[in-house]
Write a structure and sequence with these properties.
The chain is mainly alpha-helical. Helices cover about 90% and strands about 0% of the residues. The chain has one helix at about 5-40.
Amino acid sequence: MAMNVLEVLAVTTILYFVVVAVWVWKIEDILEARGDERRGEA
């Protein structure tokens, strides 16, 4: 099962976007949690 260069590029691109999307989502959750803590203190 030899993969074409295009197939490899397509799979890597999809995986890259999934990883970035999850990473951004996690960062937003962490920032929101910190923002809530600051609001609670103030």
